[in-house]
Every structure is written in structure tokens, then in C-alpha cells.
Write a structure and sequence with these properties.
It contains 14 helices and 23 strands. By secondary structure, it is an alpha/beta fold. The strands form four sheets. Strands 12, 13, 14, 15, 16, 17, 18, 19, 20 and 21 form a ten-stranded mixed β-sheet that branches.
């Protein structure tokens, strides 16, 4: 085993923290764990407790801190197999199996005392002897459910846990106790004794990937980020996504107006899109929301800005081909890396993971223009409408504070007449662009208007919108019509319709 400095030789101070080996969890805990304390990690089978314990110990080895994995429920071979699936090696890590072959020898079992009375004392003694022999800095004890079964009595169980806690404290060990929550009720004994409690959950969905989340139930002496945080268990270990709190990410930037690439659209917006704001494109399917968003995106790329496009609804091949037919070829920018197009399956995505993707794009890749198409599909990854609203509030506040120009696409149900929306996010947007179909002279046409802008004096007129090989075209105000936004207008003037070219829908 790799020789490491004993914990006794380096007493911790109140300001020191010990990394868990999972950056996201360290962030949630405000820097990590307080050393030389006993913590409880609880969760049903499959939540990743063993993986978390191994990451904790392997991180210690990298820092020159010896580690000990004490197991009652898994063999050393099983632990090594788990590590191998993540590409890890357990060389240098001490593994102690308490359930040895001798424990299974029926001839060795005595019958004077109840077996649990002897086995519990022997188990505790073996743990103490192994710790005294190896002097580890970090210890993982897997699992407390076996100890609970051996104790059979809540009083004896609590006394044994207290004895172990006092022993580990005297040896200056930082300990993770793993518990699979096999008891019918929450184990309040462990909760009250442990210095901190980390609860892991796995939620099975009726369709798509299961969702995992972590909650810090308690953590004495430190401030931590409360609530639920999504995490993923995959090859390479656990990745945790701390819940986004926009107020923690303030940044100075200079607001500036940028053109959209369509002069007539800029005139409607009051000059263009403002840096550090978000624009919501609302309308029924096929009206041109994505095309109008791509027009704004292309203008940003031509200015040299880095951009990301999060595509939920459409295939990449169709997306590239359709935009090229409209005179907006994005592939060169994607090939150069200036534009990152991420195709997302909402059935495989957790909200926390998506928020982290956006943070990485802004903070690691320098993205300054961002499109989410569409919020309808993103809603499917959320547990409920109220959570989408809260999540989007934090996301948009964060992006605005980072000086990112954001375009959101929100589809509506219905084509002509009454239309409805899955969720109303218009109050969160800085600018809202409304698109509608209407009928005139026996043809289906499109109308566009800017109904809200917090940053500029925008036009209040309604205009015809046309999409063709020439790109985006916006006509004169439809002053001769009434009821355009209802889809059933009446004609009361001499406003000419735009010349019809070959139309490509979006």
C-alpha cells in the first residue's frame, strides 16, 4: 500500500476543507467536507453510493492521503470490478472485507450467546483493529444496513455507532458511512449522530432515462447550497450539477445594440438585439420562429461572436439543409468551432445537466450568443410547469448577467384563430416577438409584430413576414387590415401584399 502521511501529524483547522473527489459536490458544500468527522451517505441501491465512496478515497490517494474501504456487503473483487468500469485502479487503496470465509463456517459458530451479540462486537473490534493497523486518513464504511441487522436492537445499534464515531474521532479519520436505506423508516439514529448527511435519490420516469438527484440533509458548521441538485452516474464516476443561483454569478459588461442582419426587423425592434437580454419568439409550428432566430444568430457569427444553438426538435441534417436553402449556411461556422450546435434528447436530459451545459458554454467556451429551440421540448425534461418557470428565471438571469444575448423559441398549439401555449414565459423575456398565420386573397400568409421590449422603443405595427431563398423579408405595416393576430382579418384599406416567391417553411 502507498505510504501516506498520517492524519494525526496534520491536525485540521476550522477553515480547512477536504475534497470529496467530486467537484460539483464540493461546490454544493461550499468547498468540501470538514476533516476528521463522520458523515452519512444514504441512498437506495443504484444511486451511486459505492462510486461516491471510491471517488472520495481515490481523491485522497492523489493528495497523498491513505484510504481504507471497509465492506460488509461487497467483496474486494466486486469493488475492483466497479472501479474497472470507470477506468480506475484501486492500487494503493486498502480494502478490508469483514465477511470472510471463516464467518461462514457453521462449525465455528457458538451457541451459548445470541449470534448477533458476538458478531456485532467482533465486527466493531475488527474495524478498530484495521484502522489502528493502517492509520488511514480517509475511511469508507459499507454498509450500515449490515450493522443494523447485527444489532437487532435500536439501543445497541446506537451505542455501537457512537463507539465507532468516538473511535474515528480519536484517530483523526474522515469517514463516510454508506447506508442503503433498507430500514422501513428513516434512520434518525444515524442522522443525529453523523456530522453531515448526504442523501442520494433515483427517480424512475415512465419514459426516458432515470433521474438522479442529491440533497444535503444537514451539514454542521458550514454553509451549503440547499435543495435538490441533479447528478449523473456514468463511466468515469459521478458528475454533480449544483443548482444554479444567478445572484452568485455577477459580471460587468457594457450593453450594446447589435443588428439582426435584417434591417426591417431591426427597425421593429428599435435598433436590434441588446447584449445581456433575452428575446422570446412565440408562434405556431411552421411560422418561422427558428428561421428568424437563425437570422439573428448568423449576424452574431458574422460579427465574430461565439455562439451555441441548443436544438431539441429538429434533426441536424434537416436543420443545416433548410437554413442553407434560405441563404443562411451555418456549416462553415460549425466546422470552424465558432458555432456549437448541440442536439438534445429531452428524455435523456436532467434540468441540472442542461443548466451546467449553458454555464460551460459561457464560462469555458466564451459563448456570447445563445439559442434554445424550443422551450416546449425542454418542458418535457422538467417535472412540472412551475419548476420550468423557476428554472428559466435563474437561467435567463444568469445569462443576462453574463452579457449573453439569448433567443428563446416557444411554440403554440393551433394555426388559425385561437392558439394556446404550454406555459407562459413572456413575463420573463426582455423582448417578445409574436408571429401569426392569417389568410388574405385565398393564401396563407405570415404576420409579425414586437409586442414587448424592455430596452428600446419598438414599433407597434404589424407586418407581413415572408421566408424564401432570399432569406427573411418583412413588408410594410398591415394598416389596411383588422384582426390579423386572430388569423381572420378584415380588409379595410389599400395595403399591398408582398410579392410571393417560393416559400420555405420552418
Amino acid at each position: 500500500m502507498t505510504t501516506a502521511t498520517s492524519a494525526q501529524s496534520a491536525p485540521s483547522t476550522a477553515s480547512e476543507r477536504m475534497s470529496t473527489g467530486i467537484p460539483g459536490l464540493d461546490d454544493i458544500l461550499g468547498g468540501g467536507l470538514t476533516p476528521q468527522r463522520v458523515y452519512l451517505v444514504e441512498g437506495t441501491p443504484g444511486t451511486g453510493k459505492t462510486t461516491l465512496g471510491l471517488q472520495f478515497l481515490l481523491d485522497g490517494l492523489k493528495r497523498g492521503e491513505s484510504g481504507l474501504y471497509i465492506t460488509l456487503s461487497e467483496t474486494a473483487d466486486e469493488l475492483k470490478a466497479v472501479a474497472a468500469t470507470h477506468g480506475w485502479t484501486l492500487d494503493g487503496l486498502a480494502i478490508h472485507e469483514l465477511a470472510s470465509d471463516g464467518d461462514l463456517d457453521l462449525d465455528s459458530q457458538q451457541s451459548v450467546f445470541h449470534p448477533s451479540e458476538v458478531e456485532l462486537n467482533e465486527t466493531t473490534r475488527n474495524v478498530m483493529n484495521e484502522v489502528d493497523r493502517l492509520k488511514p486518513v480517509r475511511v469508507v464504511f459499507d454498509s450500515m444496513s449490515e450493522m443494523r441487522l447485527l444489532a437487532q436492537n435500536p439501543l445497541r445499534y446506537r451505542r455501537q455507532i457512537l463507539a465507532l464515531k468516538q473511535f474515528f474521532a480519536s484517530r483523526a479519520c474522515t469517514v463516510l458511512l454508506l447506508d442503503d436505506k433498507s430500514s422501513s423508516t428513516s434512520d434518525q439514529h444515524l442522522h443525529s449522530i453523523a456530522h453531515g448527511v448526504i442523501s442520494l435519490e433515483q427517480i424512475a420516469k415512465e419514459f426516458g432515462k432515470e433521474r438522479r438527484r442529491v440533497n444535503i440533509v444537514k451539514m454542521r458548521g458550514i454553509r451549503f447550497r440547499g435543495g435538490f441538485h441533479d447528478y449523473a452516474l456514468d463511466t468515469g464516476g459521478i458528475l454533480m450539477y449544483p443548482r444554479l443561483v444567478a445572484s452568485e454569478h455577477m459580471r460587468d459588461f457594457t450593453p450594446s445594440i447589435s443588428p439582426t442582419g435584417a434591417d426591417s426587423f431591426d427597425a421593429l425592434l428599435g435598433g436590434g438585439l441588446v447584449r445581456g437580454t433575452n428575446t422570446l419568439m412565440v408562434g405556431p409550428s411552421g411560422i418561422g420562429k427558428t428561421t428568424l432566430s437563425v437570422r439573428c444568430l448568423l449576424a452574431a457569427l458574422e460579427r465574430g461572436e461565439k455562439a451555441s444553438f441548443y436544438l431539441f426538435d429538429e434533426g441536424l441534417g434537416t436543420f443545416f439543409a433548410r437554413n442553407k436553402s434560405l441563404g443562411m449556411d451555418l456549416r462553415p461556422y460549425a466546422d470552424s468551432g465558432q458555432l456549437r450546435i448541440i442536439h438534445i434528447d429531452p428524455a435523456e436530459l436532467s434540468p441540472g445537466e442542461f443548466a451546467q451545459m449553458l454555464r460551460d458554454a459561457v464560462e469555458l467556451h466564451g459563448v456570447r450568443f445563445l439559442v434554445i429551440d424550443s422551450l416546449n421540448a425542454y418542458l418535457q425534461a422538467m417535472p412540472g410547469e412551475q419548476y420550468l418557470t423557476l428554472q428559466m428565471h435563474e437561467l435567463l438571469s444568469y445569462l443576462n448577467q453574463q452579457g449573453v444575448t439569448t433567443v428563446l423559441v416557444l411554440g403554440q398549439h393551433g394555426l388559425i384563430g385561437e392558439v394556446r401555449t404550454d406555459v407562459d414565459l413572456s413575463y420573463l423575456s426582455d423582448t417578445t416577438v409574436l408571429l401569426r398565420f392569417f389568410e388574405a386573397n385565398g393564401r396563407l400568409r405570415r404576420a409579425l409584430t414586437v409586442i414587448k421590449s424592455r430596452t428600446a422603443t419598438h414599433a407597434l405595427t404589424i407586418h407581413e413576414l415572408q421566408l424564401s431563398g432570399e432569406g427573411v423579408r418583412i413588408g410594410a405595416p398591415l394598416e389596411g387590415f383588422e384582426g390579423v393576430l386572430t388569423g381572420l382579418p378584415t380588409y379595410r384599406g389599400v395595403t399591398p401584399m408582398m410579392t410571393t416567391n417560393v416559400d420555405v417553411t420552418s
